Amino acid sequence: MHPRRLLIGGNWKMNGDLAGGVELAEAVAAAFEPIRTNVDAVIFPPFPYLQSVARALGHSGIELGAQDCSAKPNGARTGEVSASMLVDLGVQHVIIGHSERRQFHHETDRLVCEKVHVAMENGLKVMLCVGETWEERSAGRAVEVVQKQLRGALEGLQGDRLAALTVAYEPVWAIGTGKSATPKDAAEAHEAIRRDLEHLYDRSSSAAVRILYGGSVNAANAPSLFAHLEIEGALVGGASLKGADFASILGSAATAFKGRRG
Ligand code: PEP
Asked: How many helices (H) and strands (E) would you count in the chain?
């Protein structure tokens, strides 16, 4: 199989302000220009900043993502944002099942699954987050937990939808802690996810899915993560808020892709 470009996502979470977000997007867009043929990128700003960030990204080639969407297509859901509303704004990607949503908003695999369906029906590409807690890993249950989340999220999804799916393996204990998984542990988890996708679907449709690593990725550890072929990019939180750091991660991904291509 020909190696694919790595995909780097910047999840800004609920950080920053409008002026800072626009400035950051402009800086990242400028850094992306010389490497855009060797790496894919998407930025996930907070909802209110989507349109301004879209303008700042311009024709840079960096795509626009939202951090969540409602499981319902429309109606009485105060405070929620529907997938079709995101599409109206030019959003192309949506994060679903982030551990912070599972933890603080009690999102279940069933709700995650409904969101995946509604997002894809509206033409959004889904960045599905899965990952175990430290307790689960310590109990030797990491693979089992991730498998359950993956299967729950993809229930009822046809294989031809996988072209719109990216899986982000994000061990909960590594998110925002400065304690990244080792490249070897991450690669092993990715391998298990890949096998599970192939088991649930088939080899060729699951080959469309890129599997990213997320959890304290930074400019320093990105090259060693991307040295593993199983790691096809990163979902980056904290380091995506610093233009130079995010640019450096993008650069490492572009270099890794060139190396993989040989
Ligand atoms: C995330 O929230 O998706 C994430 C990976 O955060 P951080 O990079 O800050 O660990």
From this structure: 11, 8
- Give the Cα-Cα-Cα angle 194, 199, 203 (nearest 5 degrees): 65
Segment 104-143, tens digit of pLDDT: 999 999 999 999 999 999 999 999 999 999 999 999 999 9
- Region of residue 225 (left: phi > 0; alpha: psi -120 to 50; beta: else): alpha
Tell me the fold of 6-261.
TIM Barrel (3.20.20)
Residue keyed to tokens 């904290």: 238
In a mutational test of the pocket of ligand 1, which residue from 96, 213, 217 has the highest number of ligand atoms less than 8 Å from its CB?
A: 217
What is the position in ligand 1's atom list of the atom closest to the CA of 95? 3
C-beta separation of 191 from 228 below 8 A? no
Residues 6+ apart with CB under 8 A from 149: 97, 109, 112, 130, 131
Q: How far is the CA of 59 from the centre of ligand 1 (A)?
A: 26
DSSP, res 172: G
pLDDT tens across 17-30, in order? 999 999 999 999 99
Residue ranges of domains in the chain: 6-261
The residue among 229, 207, 218 whose CA lies nearest residue 252 is: 218
Query: Which stretch of DSSP H or E encloses residue 63?
Result: strand 63-66
Catalytic residues: 98, 170
Which atom from ligand 1 is nearest to the alpha carbon of 180? 10
Centre of ligand 1 to C-alpha 208, Å, is: 24
